[in-house]
Amino acid sequence: MTEVIIVQHADEAGRLVADAITALAERTPAAVLGVATGSTPLPVYRELAAGAGSGLLGGLSAFALDEYVGLAPDDPRSYHHVIHSEVTLPLGLDPSRVHAPSGDPGTLSTAGARYEQAIAAAGGIDLQLLGIGVDGHLGFNEPGSSLASRTRVKTLTEQTRRDNARFFDSPDEVPMHCITQGLGTIREARHLVLLAFGARKAAVVAAAVEGAVSSFVPASVIQLHPHVTVVVDEAAASELRNVAYYRHAQQHKPDWQGL
Ligand code: PGA
User: To test ligand 1's pocket by mutation, which of 39, 86, 204 has the most ligand atoms within 8 angstroms of CB?
Assistant: First the structure.
């Protein structure tokens, strides 16, 4: 089932998804969370941080989707660092249980397999947070990525490098390569929660949720997963065709059904 939830504001999405993660931590204190970088998941992390005092989240493990190649883990622009400051510290997670793929150029040939092994050793990912790129990427799986791909090194598109230039002093500094969980890896998470906000994401949300499943729109791989929740604001939902049904299903959602 691909459930589409339309919210009025990103903060509402943040509360909704944070509640689902908190409920997961209540049920399974040692649950494994898949975390994403970028601006989209920040309202979720803010909400979770606000409740972190309870200590409920302290037993969670987390795996990031991706990392740049060639940035040291303590480089503020590396995803190791971003996850540490946006997720690990504010949520009170144990740093030894928070992981990101290694972008160390010296060990890249084995980094993908090592990351896959680490995810498997943790028992797999229970809930994977996902943003979506305007080019349809999921993680850093750019258009053309195999729907069966595993964690590996990819070349970033110029679109993605431009989009991410805001985190660097100049666009040229954005690394050319990354290491990312594959679409096949992401598909193995037990619950996918994809968030998108703003009109800029409207076309790609419609393509991913309602278009053909295609490696040309990597995020369309979510349609092959049995448990997906897409949370979008009105602007990001504006090009969905089946929107009346999504609202209807939301209104009549059975009490027993969680996110
Ligand atoms: P954003 O990035 O959350 O900053 O829009 C999403 C993505 O590129 O996957």
Answer: 39
